[in-house]
């Protein structure tokens, strides 16, 4: 990453939770795997001096003004910095040719601890989209609907993914991209509009006028860049219960006894990336993530799809860091502090009894800062001007 904290850069492609070779503290028992460590953002929050306090503007409270000032500072920062600014000084980028076998691409992802890779069509010398976990889930769906086609599935190439998508009636592979010199704000809006959690950076060669894949930008990398460089995040002191950020209704859940394929169907049907796992009393005990599917089909073996969720989660690496939780009393300043210190992709919102209240994803946080807060601020200042 090009900011002052060079150590925050990390590897370019997003690691697979539980498959990263660089993780540390191992756990080995079934109980530990079934009941992962819970990490609350307030555990990371340390007292810091506030950058400034806004003067009162009308009927809003000082806390409201601070919140608006913090949100405005973040939006201005995103508009002033480009995607190039987020990239580390050196990194490795893995790009797949569309002629590669799907089975081989899966093994490469696992070996390198990543969950996505840009696609390149060597016949036309063009960018062909981004391969993600969703594409492998589509292959699983196809296999489940056509159990006699295992030999055919093993011969699928990446350029045949569109045929699979048509066969099972799902959205096509992500092809959205952004130029690396465009603002981070533009990259965020492009991701939100396409519901993508990462976006390739594609430049154009001045001499050949051909596309060049520069990198892949993730929501986590953007938010960590903000957390490291924008001190005004400490002004975001309104609790989650008082802001429009997160999902708190119509949540899809499962139990440890739920068949894995039932959860995969939920991921596809509702276009979600995770399903909270609850106990018999409704308490959160784990989260089944889309990336957990990767470890179940490595080597092209699909037998593990018959497992229950509990059995499948036992196949996670001992280095799986656990799930991150927060409550409705937590604030975005502590959320950003957690993002600054830990690789996190979502927060499970729980109450004091660990009962599920909602989900707070990185998409929710990006949308709140780039869309929702801007609308609220515009409405407020329009009222003052009236």
UniProtKB/TrEMBL annotation:
Gene Ontology molecular function: any one: AMP binding
Comp. bias intervals (Low complexity): 20-37
GO cellular component: cytoplasm; nucleotide-activated protein kinase complex; nucleus
Disordered: annotated span: 1-65
Domain of life the protein comes from: Eukaryota
Domain CBS: 170-233, 246-305, 319-375
UniProt keyword annotations, A-Z: CBS domain, Repeat
Family: Belongs to the 5'-AMP-activated protein kinase gamma subunit family.
Stated name of the protein: CBS domain-containing protein
Record organism: Aureobasidium pullulans
């Amino acid at each position: 990453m090009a900011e002052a904290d060079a150590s925050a850069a990390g590897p370019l492609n997003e690691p697979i939770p539980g498959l990263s070779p660089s993780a540390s503290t191992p756990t080995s028992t079934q109980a530990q795997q079934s009941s992962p460590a819970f990490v609350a953002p307030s555990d990371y929050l340390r007292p810091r001096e506030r950058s400034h306090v806004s003067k009162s503007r009308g009927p809003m409270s000082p806390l409201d003004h601070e919140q608006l000032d913090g949100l405005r500072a973040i939006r201005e920062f995103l508009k002033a910095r480009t995607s190039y600014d987020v990239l580390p000084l050196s990194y490795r980028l893995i790009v797949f040719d569309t002629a590669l076998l799907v089975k081989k691409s899966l093994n490469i992802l696992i070996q390198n601890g990543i969950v996505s890779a840009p696609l390149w069509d060597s016949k036309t010398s063009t960018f062909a989209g981004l391969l993600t976990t969703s594409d492998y889930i589509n292959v699983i769906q196809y296999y489940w609907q056509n159990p006699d086609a295992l030999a055919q599935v093993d011969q699928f190439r990446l350029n045949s993914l569109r045929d699979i998508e048509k066969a099972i009636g799902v959205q096509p592979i992500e092809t959205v991209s952004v130029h690396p010199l465009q603002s981070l704000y533009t990259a965020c809006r492009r991701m939100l509009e396409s519901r993508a959690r990462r976006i390739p950076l594609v430049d154009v060669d001045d001499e050949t006028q051909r596309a060049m894949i520069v990198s892949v930008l993730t929501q986590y990398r953007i938010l960590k860049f903000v957390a490291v460089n924008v001190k005004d995040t400490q002004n975001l002191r309104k609790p989650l219960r008082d802001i429009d950020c997160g999902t708190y209704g119509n949540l899809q859940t499962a139990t440890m006894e739920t068949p894995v394929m039932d959860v995969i169907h939920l991921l596809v049907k509702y276009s979600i990336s995770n399903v909270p796992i609850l106990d018999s009393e409704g308490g959160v005990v784990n989260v089944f993530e889309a990336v957990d599917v990767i470890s179940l089909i490595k080597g092209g073996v699909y037998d593990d799809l018959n497992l229950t969720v509990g059995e499948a989660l036992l196949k996670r690496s001992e280095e799986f860091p656990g799930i991150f939780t927060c409550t409705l009393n937590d604030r975005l300043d502590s959320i950003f502090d957690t993002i600054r210190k830990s690789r996190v992709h979502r927060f499970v919102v729980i109450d004091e009894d660990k009962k599920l209240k909602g989900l707070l994803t990185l998409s929710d946080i990006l949308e709140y800062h780039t869309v929702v807060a801007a609308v609220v601020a515009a409405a407020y200042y329009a009222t003052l001007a009236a």
